[in-house]
Write a structure and sequence with these properties.
Layout: H1 9-42, H2 46-74, H3 76-95, H4 100-128, H5 134-160, H6 167-170, H7 172-186, H8 199-218, H9 225-246, H10 256-259, H11 262-292, H12 297-304, H13 306-322, H14 327-346, H15 354-381, H16 388-416, H17 421-449
Length: 450
Amino acid sequence: MMDGLPHPQRFYAFITIAIAMTMAVLDSAIVNIALPTIGQELAISPAETIWIVNAFQLAVTVSLLPLASLGESIGYKKIYWCGLAVFTAASFACATSHSLLALSVARMVQGVGAAGIMSVNIALVRFIFPRQQLGIGMGYTSLIVAVSSAAGPTVASAILSFAHWQWLFLVNVPLGLAALVVAARTLPTTPVSGHRFDLASTMLNALTFGCLITGLNAFSDPDGRARAAVLLAGALFFGAFYVRRERRLAIPMLPFDLLRSPVFAFSMMTSISSFAAQTMAYVALPFYFQHTLGRSEVATGFLMTPWPLTTALIAPLAGRLSDRIAPERLCSTGLVILSIGLASLAMIGSAPSGFDLSWRLAVCGLGFGLFQSPNNRIIISSAPRERSGGASGLQSMGRLLGQSIGAAFVAIVFGLVHGSQTAWVIWCGTSLSLMAACASGMRRTSIAKA
C-alpha cells in the first residue's frame, strides 16, 4: 500500500479536509451569535432558539461513531464526501427555512453531515500523509480546529454586519461545492472491511450518547437539574446494554478493541480531560471579564484571543516535533504548561491589566497547542490502519464529551458556589489538567513495556 499521497495530490486532498473541517467547526460556533436575530425574525422565544443549537449538537454526537464504523465498512472517502454533500445541501436548507421546525430539522441534517466529516477526518489524514510526516498532518488539522473555533464569533459578527443571518449558512454552499469536486478527485481510496452495519448498536449508541449529552447540557439550566438526573440515569441504563453488546463483537461500533490498549485508553483520558479543562476556562472567564472586571462583550472577545491564537501558532510546530520527539513527552509537557497557565489565572489579582491577562492566557494556549497535535498523533497511530475510522470517531467523540463535561461542571459550580466562582472553576480545571498530565506520563510506561 502506498505510504501517503504524492505531491500535488496530497496538497489538494488536505485542502478539502481543511475546507470541510472549517465549515463544520465554524457552524457549531457562529450560529450562537445570531440566535437573538433569528429568534426575532422567526417570532420565537429565546428558549426555543436553543433548539437550533441543540439539534446540530445532538445529531453530531449520536452520528459520530456509527458513521466512523460505516467508514471502515465502505471506505472513509465515501463517508467524508457524502457527509460534505449532506452538510452543503443542509446549509442551503437552513438559509431558506422560515420556521423553527424547518430550521431545526435542517440543522439536524446538517449535524449528520458534520458528523460524516468529523468521524473520519483524522483517519483520512493518516492515509494522505506519509507515516514519517503524520505529526505534520495532525498539526495542520489541530491548527484548522483552533483557528475555526477562535474565529467563529468574529466571522459571525462580520457577516451579520452587512448581511442577513441566512448568509451564515449560504457561505457554505460555494465552498462545499468546490470542496466536493476536489475531494472526488484527490482523496485517497482506503481499504474496506466489508462488515455489516449494526443497526442495533446504532440505536443503543444514539440513546446512550443522546441522553448523556442532553443530560449534561441540562445542568446549565437551574430549573433543569431534575431533568438532567433523569437523562443521565437513562444514559447509564442504555449504556449498560450498549457496553454489554459491544464487548461481544469482533469489530465493535464503540471501539473496545482499541480501548484495551493502555496507550490508546490513556490518550483518550488525556483528550477528554484536557478539553474539559479548556472548556471550563472558556465558559467561566467571560463571566469574570464582564461581571467582575466590567469589560464589554467586544473587549471580552479580544481578551480571550491569546489562548486560541497561541494554540493555532504552536499546533503545527508541535505536530512536526512529534515526528522527531516522543509525542507522549510533548503531551505531558504541554499539559503541565497548561496547568501552570490555569493556576496563574486562578491566582490573578482583583484588578489585572490587559497584559496580566494576556500572557497567562497565552501560556494556556501554548500548553494546549503543545499537547493537542501529538496526542492526536498517538491516538491514530496506536490503532491498526484498518481501525483508523474507529480511532478517528472516538477522538472526535472525546472532544465533544470533554467540552460537554466542562460546560456542565461550570454550571454546577456557578449554582453551588457564591463568590470567587471563576477561581473555583479554574482551580478545578488546573487539577483536571494535572490529572491528564499524569495519565499522559503513564503512556511512556505502557510503551516501554510494549
